[in-house]
Every structure is written in C-alpha cells, then in structure tokens.
Design a protein that fits this description.
The complex is a heterodimer of chains A (about 325) and B (about 60). Chain A is of the alpha/beta class. Chain A has one domain (about 30-220, about 230-270): Rossmann fold, CATH 3.40.50.620. Chain A is built from 13 helices and 10 strands. In chain A, helix 1 packs across helix 9 and helix 5 (about 120-125) packs across helix 6 (about 130-150). The longest helix of chain A is centred in the middle third of the chain and has 19 residues, at about 130-150. Chain B is mainly beta and about 60 residues long. In chain B, about 10% of the residues lie in helices and about 40% in strands. Chain B has 1 helix and 7 strands. Chain B has one helix at about 20-25, and strands spanning about 1-5, 10-15, 20, 35-40, 40-45, 50, 55-60. Chain B has a 5-stranded mixed beta sheet, with no helix packed on it. In chain B, a hairpin with a 4-residue loop joins strand 1 (about 1-5) and strand 2 (about 10-15). The chains are: A alpha/beta (about 325), B mainly beta (about 60). At the A-B interface, helix 9, helix 10 and helix 13 of A face strand 4 and strand 5 of B.
Chain lengths: ~325, ~60
C-alpha cells in the first residue's frame, strides 16, 4: 500500500513530479498551497478584491471557484452558454447545481438568446475553426461582463498543462508577441480587465484529483468540438515527455516564467494601444470597422442554426455519437 | 474486473491481480493523462487491482 509522504496514511494519488504519494487531506493541502503561492508570487489580488471566475462546468474552473471560496475570497461565477448541443446543456446544469449547492452567485450569458448565434453556427458561418470562434466569443464576453458587473479581476482556470501547451505552440512558431503576453497576470488597461490564472502551478491530473476528492461533479468528457485539436496534441506530447522524465512540464513552463518571460517582457512590444470598436466599444484594432466579435456576431446571427454534429471531423463525430447518441 | 473508460464511454472486462499502471499500459493510456478510481475511491497507480473490482479510468486532459 502506498503511503502519504506527509502523514504515512494510505495514499489516494501518486504525483511523479513530486516523487511522492499523497492522501486526500494532504493532496488538498498541496493544491491550496500552490494556489496561494501563485496568488502571492504574482500579486494576483488581495482579500478585498471582487473576483469573477470564468466557469465552464469543467474540473479546472469549478475547482478554482471551490478553492477561492474556501480560502475566503469574494468570488462569483460567470457561465457562457455556447450552444454546443448536449455538451453545453450538461455543462450548464452542473455549473448551476455547483453554485446553488454552495449558495454562490452565478451570472449567465447565453450566446443564442443574447447574441443570436451559437458556436457550431459561428464555425460554419465564418469558416473558422470551432475553437477559434469559441475562444473569441468567450474572451469578448468575459472582458465585457467583468467590467459591466464591476468586478476587480477575472480569474480563469488555466492550469499548468494548459499554459505549458500554449507555451510549446508559441515557441514552435516563435511567436514573440504571444510569448510576451503569456503571463499569469494581465494588467487592466486599454479597455481590458485585469486577468489572472491562479492554477498555473497545478496540473490537470491534480485538478481532477481535487474534484474527485472533494466530491465535485464536473463534465468529464471533452468538448466534442475540441477533440483532436492541436492544443490537445501538444498536451499529449508534453505528457509523453513527463512520463519519461517527471516534472518536465513544470520545468518547461515555470522555468519560462522565472527566467525567460522577464527578458521577453522587457523588450519593446510591437502592438500599440487598441482603438474602440464603433459598434460595441470594446477594444479593437480599428475604430473604423467593427471588432472581431461584432463581425462574428453579424455573420453568424443571420445564418441558419447548424447542429454540432455537422461541424465535427470524422473522429470527433464518432466520439460524439458514442457519447451523446447520433442525430 | 470491469474497467470503465471514457471518451467514448465503454466497459471492458480485464483480469485482475496486477497494478493499475499495468492496466493503463495495456490499454495504451498514459498515467499523467488519467486517474484511477477503484470501486468509487481514488487510488494511486501502483495499487493492485482484484478480479472483483470495478475500475474507472478517468481522462484528465481537456482541449479547450
């Protein structure tokens, strides 16, 4: 029987990057300490801050909301209904139940009813990759609602695996502008709210273990539109490396933050201050033409609704049919 | 033992008497990308599994 490194009781999870096993109590302690360290190291917020947590119904955002409220922070949630069929319906149900059971405040924006489109339709209408249309919509709405509702900071559930995968992609492309912005805190300014990522020191496996131990119901299945995307491929590559040499992911990303990010961030940035979208007022590259979200909304809301299954590749469609039933 | 897998959801019957990480290996799954839940309880991957166990192998990677 594996024993917890901290107390010697029966372990529930092995964490090779720490070369140790942990019981439920001490895994939670480890997670909380890592979050507290991230908040402190990057001065993300203090006890007085009003925090808006971007929640999706997945393990990371619900675990983050759970941890922040456990630590005594004033954290409310914002859920965006993306209209990705049964996947979105289950995500919303789980998120609403999580908030209701804990007496937490949850704000909701629904793309279809509030903006006249959903992600499958946007992907088809604009010929964008679904994850691109989704990311654009979420960023726009999270930014807007954080400001509109008067929150001090937007917290997202990006974990170490997420950030390491993005770093790998940015490095492969040597995208210096993106590398310079890949930091756990993005300061407010130019119409953007302050954004923070308190989970950057914790892996996906640790976040999933947190949810299992804490009895948090979350959407385990991956978004059908994200199956097989490039981001997932980068994660699998990094996990393969981590299996052979535990701690590789953490070394790659946290080493970047400690030693490379300060060098890149001190260099002159190529992007100037954004202008305001003439349609919605959000930050935009031009004051003459609508911002990317307004263009997406305009094109997609006039398009006939498209079912999720119709914009999936063959692999994703098979997985979708097996999970949710064919249409 | 019964092994429950996700993405998509399915069940396979496998022999017990071996460690959880060996089951992952046989299924071609990475330890870093999965949790092992035995009879409803989270367990480390060196846990020996029995013929009567119900095992959930839960993926942890999300692509969003």
């Amino acid at each position: 029987m594996s024993k917890c490194r901290s107390c010697g009781e029966a372990a529930v999870v092995d964490l090779p990057r720490h070369n140790a096993n942990f019981c439920a109590t001490h895994l939670q302690q480890l997670c909380v300490r890592q979050v507290q360290r991230a908040i402190s190291d990057y001065a993300m917020f203090d006890e007085s801050a009003r925090i808006l947590v971007a929640v999706s119904g997945g393990k990371d955002s619900l675990a983050l909301w759970d941890m922040l409220t456990e630590l005594g922070y004033r954290a409310d949630g914002l859920y965006i209904g993306l209209g990705i069929g049964e996947y979105s319906e289950e995500s919303q149900r789980i998120t609403c139940e999580f908030a209701a059971e804990r007496g937490l405040t949850l704000h909701t924006v629904d793309l279809r009813s509030d903006h006249g489109f959903d992600i499958p339709t946007a992907a088809r209408a604009t010929r964008r990759v679904p994850c691109s249309a989704c990311g654009l919509s979420k960023r726009h709405i999270f930014d807007r609602e954080t400001a509109r509702l008067g929150y001090d900071v937007l917290a997202t559930g990006h974990n170490l695996d997420d950030e390491a995968a993005v770093l790998l992609g940015n490095t492969i492309r040597w995208d210096v502008d993106y590398l310079a912005r890949q930091f756990p805190v993005l300061e407010a300014g130019h119409g953007f709210p302050r954004k923070v990522k308190p989970l950057i020191r914790l892996t996906e496996r640790e976040m999933a273990a947190w949810c299992v131990i804490r009895g948090i119901d979350y959407v385990v299945e991956e978004c059908p539109m994200a199956i097989g995307n490039r981001h997932s491929g980068y994660k699998e590559t990094l996990n393969d490396m981590d299996e052979r040499s535990p701690g590789t992911k953490a070394s790659f990303y946290l080493g970047f933050l400690d030693r490379m990010a300060p060098l890149i961030r001190s260099a002159p940035q190529s992007q100037g201050a954004p202008e305001a979208c003439p349609s919605c007022g959000a930050p935009s590259s031009s004051s003459e033409t609508p911002c990317a979200f307004c263009r997406l909304e305009s094109t997609s809301s006039s398009h006939e609704p498209v079912a999720v299954r119709m914009v999936l590749n063959r692999t994703a469609r098979r997985a979708f049919d097996a999970q949710w039933g064919g249409e | 033992m019964i092994v429950r897998l996700r993405q998509p959801r399915r069940e396979v019957e496998m022999a017990g008497g071996r460690a959880a990480h060996a089951v992952l290996h046989d299924l071609g799954l990475s330890r870093e990308g999965h949790l092992i839940i035995r009879n409803g309880t989270l367990v480390p991957s060196d846990t020996m599994l029995d013929d009567g166990d119900v095992i959930e192998i839960r993926p942890v990677i999300s692509g969003g």
